Each structure stands twice: as C-alpha cells, then as structure tokens.
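CATEGORY: protein folding

GOAL: derive structure tokens
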Amino acid sequence: MKSEKLVMDFARLSLWEVQELDLDVYLYLVREAYIYDLSQTKQGREYLETCKRLTVTKPERDKLRARYGKNGKRERHGS
C-alpha cells in the first residue's frame, strides 16, 4: 500500500486510477516518485548521487587524465 500512496500523491491520481494502471506505467511512476521524494532532502540527494556513481561502468577518461596524467601517474602541481 505504501507504493500506491506514493504514486497517488506524486501523480495526483485516485486509488482506483492507480489500481487501473498498466504494470509498466505503475512501476515507472513508483520509481519516479521515489526519486522525487529522495531529491527533496540533502541526505536523499547524497544517496541518489552515490547510486548514480555506483552504476557508472565506463571510465571518465578526461577526468582521469586530468587527475593522473596520460601515463597514469598522479601529476604534482606546483613542483
């Protein structure tokens, strides 16, 4: 019932309308409502950022090269 209430508030639908949604639409709305609720607090935003970071599968080569240089060794600034 908790997820139904979440969708009802997020999408401004009645319980009847939520129960009549196709499953894929319902699950999409649950996901979006949960993300929206988390984004409303600092702690929630930190959690979402951590989740996003954990899903990255390709390295960000530009950022790595900026930090470690082309040879893979950490560049020393100011030396």
Remarks:
- Residues 2-68 form one domain.
